[in-house]
């Protein structure tokens, strides 16, 4: 895990992060060229192009091997599976949905050869 900083060079990016327990507070901003945003160490964060043209951002990390944790893959793709009753209660969803998600094949985004902007990653 590492901290990350991005500088938008082109386009419009919606970026943010969520603080840890107990607050789970969202800090987010719409970024335009020249804007800079810092993602603190170890927090769930995101970046999304919300413009009508491609976006370009320069990203820097404080580690040459920052690692990655994809939340859905980790939680629903665990081997052995996490108890579905526990996940249903934690996410306030039906146990049947948890079971379906646990049966899905979870792709490791780092295994993808190229980024597909239409994918859910």
Automatic annotation (TrEMBL):
A GO CC term attached to the entry: apoplast
UniProt-annotated location(s): Secreted, Extracellular space, Apoplast
Main location: secreted
Annotated positions binding Mn(2+): 4, 45
A Pfam family the protein falls into: Cupin_1
Cupin type-1 domain sequence ranges: 1-99
UniProt-recorded Gene Ontology molecular function terms: manganese ion binding
Family: Belongs to the germin family.
Name by which UniProt lists this protein: Germin-like protein
Source organism of the structure: Jatropha curcas (Barbados nut)
């Amino acid at each position: 895990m590492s901290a990350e900083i991005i500088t938008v060079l082109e386009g419009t990016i919606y970026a943010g992060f969520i603080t840890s327990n107990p607050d789970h507070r969202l800090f987010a901003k719409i970024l335009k060229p020249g804007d800079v945003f810092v993602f603190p160490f170890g927090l769930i964060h995101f970046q999304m192009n919300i413009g009508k043209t491609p976006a370009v951002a320069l990203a820097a990390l404080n580690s040459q091997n920052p690692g990655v944790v994809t939340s859905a893959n980790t939680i629903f793709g665990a081997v052995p599976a996490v108890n579905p009753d526990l996940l249903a209660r934690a996410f306030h969803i039906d146990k049947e949905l948890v079971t379906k998600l646990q049966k899905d094949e979870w792709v490791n985004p780092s295994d993808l050869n190229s980024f597909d902007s239409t994918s859910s990653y």
